Amino acid sequence: MTPHETELTAETQTALERADAAHRHEALFSERAHNIRQSAVRDVFDISIRPGLVSLAGGSPSLTRLPLGLVAETAQRVIMDHGMEALHYGGGKGTLALRELICEIMAEEGILGASPEDVVVTTGSQSAQDIAAKVFCNPGDVVLAEDPTYVGALNTFEAYQVRVEPVGMDEDGLVPELLEARIAELEAAGATIKLLYTIPSFNNPSGITLAAERRQQIVDICREHNILVLEDNPYGMLRFDGKPLAPLRADNPDDVIYCGSFSKIFSPGVRLGWALVPKHLYRRFYLAAEAVVLCPSMLNQMLVTEFFHSFDWRAYLAESRAVYAERCAAMLHALGEHFPAEATWTTPSGGFFVWVTLPDGIDTYPLLHESIEAGVVFIPGAAFTPSDAPSSKLRLAFSGVAPEQIREGVRRLAPVVRAAVEANARYAPAAPAAPGRD
Amino acid sequence: MTPHETELTAETQTALERADAAHRHEALFSERAHNIRQSAVRDVFDISIRPGLVSLAGGSPSLTRLPLGLVAETAQRVIMDHGMEALHYGGGKGTLALRELICEIMAEEGILGASPEDVVVTTGSQSAQDIAAKVFCNPGDVVLAEDPTYVGALNTFEAYQVRVEPVGMDEDGLVPELLEARIAELEAAGATIKLLYTIPSFNNPSGITLAAERRQQIVDICREHNILVLEDNPYGMLRFDGKPLAPLRADNPDDVIYCGSFSKIFSPGVRLGWALVPKHLYRRFYLAAEAVVLCPSMLNQMLVTEFFHSFDWRAYLAESRAVYAERCAAMLHALGEHFPAEATWTTPSGGFFVWVTLPDGIDTYPLLHESIEAGVVFIPGAAFTPSDAPSSKLRLAFSGVAPEQIREGVRRLAPVVRAAVEANARYAPAAPAAPGRD
């Protein structure tokens, strides 16, 4: 046997051993592990950083107006002056100073008088959703969610073997009558409904906002059926015009778990979010948080606290709103200019996303590959519903790219969409008007 | 009605509403939520930062020799030069640069040739344990663990309704025969054993190290019974003398999930750890990580990578080992000087902890309150076992306090221990020699 052959044999040996281990270990996965899926958004994340591509995929905030010098100087100061604290373990709830700042921020959007004692700082707001699922959901329990809803939350809930049941929206957000009907239907079928997961302001992916006059109604319906509201509000402060709408939590401190985030108003790179939790649920919630990460990063907590104290974050948010408003307008204008008449889309009043609907019969998932060829990425609509059915929708994010890039991206995407619309009209059977439904 | 009366009524009203909500929501908790407990270590965490107390409780690393100026300067540079990346979202596995650094660090302790492709960066190594429980354990499944073991891991596993079954140790760590017997017993009773959770080097809380000659034997037993090894090795590099012992993972890439951490070798404040995962388990593991936090903090990842590249971390670890060796020696000496003859303790060869055993019949939990009165805190032994039985052990951490403080702490603790030993000898029935057991 030559040395080369020995090498091959050793390699084969390793491969065989691994195959054997893989086979043996297959039996070790938990039931929930089979529910853990790749998020389509994350799939596209890796692709979208390729040079030359225009990414309308990721919901990234614009950081271009952040005063990097001040952030850098603050980080340096925190480490020099308070390094022994910043580089150490902290308490599981987060620092009091940051929880106080969070209460100030929430006051700005209409949650008045929240106590820092009811806030848990989390590693991004996604982890607050993970904790909520952990603390409240047994396998098979139902979580209600807007249809469509945030794909990351779907992944988080599914990891706990939760059934996510979609509830319809119209242009004013969740429809109270549809929510009541859905609850009745599920209760009649013996389901245990634990939470309503909602993104009431500038819903991800649709950009739709729950109308002010529906907000109390939604909470009341949930209260009546003993369903907790899990309100995810990362974009609430980013309303283009006027004051933010008061969150569902504002007047309902006992029935709503509110999730906020520094990712959209400051930086996703510090991975800091929070949950404002009803007093009677706080202890279990925070202990569950602690069981996962012990404590949020002290360094990042102190950096955010010091930075927000040393800069005019209200003015920065006003600037950010103007940036996003301009980008949204650029996208809406480009869509009007380049997209075929058969496509429709939402007109968001804040947030990061426009939601495009193509004619029935088109599946936007295969279009993704063609659009990558054309130099642009988006997220296919199917990612945002718990069902596996094909979707004729697509999410376009205007938040992270400059207006000229947005125009270029829409321009590149238009022929792909146009071709799909034409092929669909030519080959698909004409959709019959559904009788009894309008 | 006076305004004062109205106010009282409103307050009463709020309290009544909250009580009602608390009552209604009690039914919403998941089954696992009832298993989520306060960690005794965290209980004491809040107490131990009171001024004047000597804390021998928390397993905090010593940061006094960290070059804070260089850390601060690095943070500033990362933000100034790479802020758009550092403050943004990153990939779910962690950055390639950090995963490469992690492979270099692991090589230093005997894991050669690990691929960055098999590493997942996590938010502290506790979250790697959380992910392992999530991916592998159904409610009722068994995880084997050393007796005693890390309280944080117990909390994490219990949050997944896992049965943690202790396996006995002697002064050379886990006893292979006891492991086999325990497995046989559990299998005979129909249990599904998924993982062996082990801290082989300088076990937390006992300070005991698994002897080199037992390591392969332990993995082989687990492999034979199709049990994955979850190796938690935060202290592995902190052996006082000589080279680190090769981790269980070193020669067993397919059967061991290895957890490492920057908390003990650099800083807990950045909340960064990692898991080195067998190739065939990697995808599920990393998707589960992503479902919780999306990605680890980019800022902290880039800070750690840059910092380790710009400073001689091997020399720093050598210095750290000397610091901990000196502190350990101070503690052992003080124990010899002040503790009663009835107390025994371990002599660790690395890590952060000494484990003290008092005579049978003493419960160290109530002693904690007396010791706080005396100006010193420790962690009672009962925290480190899954059972609720009282324990005559206590964990003393020497890692985070200077030698003179250690001596003062032991001096303050000694009279409390002495009084307990005397009271126990006076009132407790003499423990009969257990027949047939030695």
TrEMBL record, chains A, B:
Residues 71-413 form the Aminotransferase class I/classII large domain. This is Aminotransferase. Keywords: Aminotransferase, Pyridoxal phosphate, Transferase. GO terms for biological process: alpha-amino acid metabolic process. InterPro entries: Aminotransferase_I/II_large (IPR004839), Class-I_PLP-dep_aminotransf (IPR050859), PyrdxlP-dep_Trfase (IPR015424), PyrdxlP-dep_Trfase_major (IPR015421), PyrdxlP-dep_Trfase_small (IPR015422). Transmembrane segments: none annotated. Its cofactor is pyridoxal 5'-phosphate. It comes from the Bacteria. GO terms for molecular function: pyridoxal phosphate binding; transaminase activity. Belongs to the class-I pyridoxal-phosphate-dependent aminotransferase family. Gene3D superfamilies: Aspartate Aminotransferase, domain 1, Type I PLP-dependent aspartate aminotransferase-like (Major domain). Homodimer.
